[in-house]
Design goal:
single chain, 243 residues, alpha+beta, Jelly Rolls, 5-stranded antiparallel sheet, 4 helices, endoplasmic reticulum
Length: 243
Amino acid sequence: MRSGRAHIDDFGVHYREDPLEGVIGISSDYGKRFIIERVSPSDQILYQTERYHTKSFEYEITIPEEGDYVLVLKFSEVYFNAPGQKVFDVALNDKVVIKHLDIFSLVGHGVAHDEYVPFRVQNSMLYLKSFSIHFNGKLKVRFIHIGIDNPKVNALYVLRGTVEDVPRLNDADISVEKRSDSIETVIEEVDHFSDDTLESSEKYASGPKLQDPYAQQDQSQYLLPFLVILACFFPILYCLCQM
């Protein structure tokens, strides 16, 4: 499923329309302002639209059969330009499987990022990497608000198989500048966030307002051409009068 309408990606994965539309959270297409790196033109929409919420929210997915599965979560950071500005947790059936996810710190701004969570369903049990819990056939994917802006997701799906079966993003498409920025920058703790950091379709500009290039010029320079003309005019007039 994805935020927005149904979609079939380049690998044949079917994404159904967002079941939370009109139910909880906010859908946003703010990312359409950017071309997302690591993604083909036909799959840009998967990372340009998202659902976020000012509180925690979750999706419920039915897993009808036993077997090995992978939860694939798709993200891109299109609003913030520094690490530590949007951080949240992800849980499966109330067990945290991704802690302190900071998309910008991993790949930078405007770059696709996927997270993989392998799990197994067997004998009414859900087996994850380090623990197992009773399972009733419903996988609850929860995006947990931890006080550093809002949790979000662009798209997600469950694949029957292992991590090796998941189609991968193209690492070669990440610019060197963005990769180095995300690796070298130290993430600082953020204890709170302001309402000013929330997404807004009206809160962006193409750049700072430019100063008038003529405002700082000396006004006397505009008089110079006129003085030159007057200096030439009087000698000519005198000569004409002597004729």
